[in-house]
């Protein structure tokens, strides 16, 4: 075997390994996004709506107090801030309330996603037209994955057709150039996926999800405990508001 052919074989092995790493990184990223979406939905259903109710009661209480003491500048500012907080909570709750429960991601869906990623990733394109086609297809695959739609992913793989990039040319030199460029693309995408995964893990939502997950794994019920605590605060605010609304004797 000629030295060029040996080098080509070595690089093709490296390319294959990188493809596996990229597919794994892409899968890990999409899976984490889905898990965070699932947690966010569950968090709202258990405690998020209670925060909304508590903020609304707080706004009503401070508004009543501000009306009683119109010359108290500090109290007027507190009433304004409480109203803004209640509005923000309500807006966020409105978006979450109408959101369908996130789909369950099965091992079969993960396997199909890996196959689709390896087949049609945009970095496999050799020209801009093909890159655009692959980008559109991968966007559809990502949406199907987030929806937990295995059939849609499998159909997208069929629609995409055979991977033209897998066809090898007869010229060793041209194939060397092709595989070298492909390796560079894979390394770049792997770095991007790992960076995005790291950024997701630095968000407040991920930290909360991890903390709750660890507590639940130990048999605790942190969200249930928080819900009960918020319910007590809500009842206290209801009593306070009722007292404020009573006419002076």
Describe this structure in words.
The chain contains 8 helices and no strands. The protein is mostly helical and about 250 residues long. The protein has one domain. Helix 1 crosses helix 2 (about 75-95), helix 1 crosses helix 3 (about 105-120) and helix 4 packs antiparallel against helix 5. The longest helix is centred in the first third of the chain and has 66 residues, at about 5-70. Keywords: Chaperone, Coiled coil.
Task: Give the fraction of residues assigned to helices.
Answer: over 70%
> Overall 3D geometry?
elongated
Biggest β-sheet strands, sense, barrel: none
- Helix/strand structural class: mainly alpha
The number of helices is 8
Rg result: 27 Å
Outline the low-pLDDT stretches.
none
Number of domains: 1
Straight-line distance between termini: 103 Å
Taken in chain order, the helices and strands follow as HHHHHHHH
Region (Disordered): 79-104
Protein name: Molecular chaperone DnaJ
Coiled coil: 1-35, 176-203
Biased composition (Basic and acidic residues): 79-91
